[in-house]
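User: What would this chain look like folded?
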Amino acid sequence: MGIRHAQIGEVAERTGLSLRTIRYYEEMGLVEPSARTAGGFRLYSDTDVSRLQLIKRMKPLDFSLEEMRDVLGILDSFDSAEGEEGAAQAVARLGTYHDAALARVAALQQQLAVAEGFAADLRREITRQKKLVSRSR
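Assistant: Here's the prediction, encoded as structure tokens.
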């Protein structure tokens, strides 16, 4: 049984990325379609789709294109025979990105707490104003 491929439109639907974004990631060297049709249309495997989903998860954490490329390269290196020493170095580099991701998640959680506090303040003010309006009637 062969590898199942999907055209870019289906991949866009599956990943929630726009066609333009997928093409951009290809131009930047983050993902490459596994195949092309005779007419030149991009065809993506499930592995390609998983790679795009990983890129999508890195984006909200403000990973730069260079950082994304490095993370993807590290993950790709696990599939090649680099030897034990190379694998240990790759794991250590991946650990650095893990630490960065955790720090960025913590920063986003702080931002979310501030935003939730603001929304709660607004909700209280709306409730207060509604009471004032209803009293004045």
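The first strand starts at residue 6 and ends at 7. If you want, I can go into more detail on any region.
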